[in-house]
Amino acid sequence: MPALNYDLSKFLFTGLVSVATLVDILSLSDLHVYLTVPFVLSWSLMDALACGCTVLASRTAPVVEMIATAKTACWSTSSTLEGLARRAVEVLRDPRAFHSLGQRGAELVRGGTRWV
After folding, report:
1. Inter-residue contact 73 to 101 (CB < 8 Å)
2. Which of 36, 37, 55, 64 has the fewest CB atoms nearer than 10 Å to its CB?
3. Does residue 89 lie in a domain region?
């Protein structure tokens, strides 16, 4: 396993924030990486989708229940951390190319079109 040497100046640890601040953060974000293993489906996925944020998630049973197709989110094509990171970098290199996923994700959560 490679050494975990991250530049912590690239991260913002907000601590507890208000709902309004969370909406602002998610609405301005280019990508929400939803870590799903071994967790169950949580509100954070729906929060990110509702704010129109592009979501990257693993294709696991709880997530597939919420996001039926790749029309509303990006799937990680790998079960490894490196594969997830490669996909995240792909999205972050050209976030506009994935913007429609966030828009359709917001429609899904807000009760609009069911993208199945």
Report:
1. yes
2. 37
3. yes
Identify whether 13 is part of a domain: no
CATH assignment at residue 84: 3.40.50.2000
**What is the chain's alpha carbon radius of gyration, rounded to the nearest angstrom?**
14
Quote the CA–CA distance of 19 and 116 in Å, as a whole number.
Answer: 29
Which of helix, strand or coil describes residue 51? Answer: coil
**C-alpha–C-alpha distance, residues 10 and 60, integer Å:** 29
CA–CA distance, 65 with 57 (Å, rounded to integer): 12
DSSP codes joined into one string, 30-46: S-EEE--SSPPP-HHHH
Which residues neighbour 103 within 8 Å (Cβ) at sequence distance 6 or greater? 52
- Per DSSP, helices labelled H in the chain are 19-28, 43-50, 61-66, 81-93, 99-109
pLDDT in tens, 12-60: 788 999 999 999 999 999 999 888 766 678 888 889 989 999 999 887 7
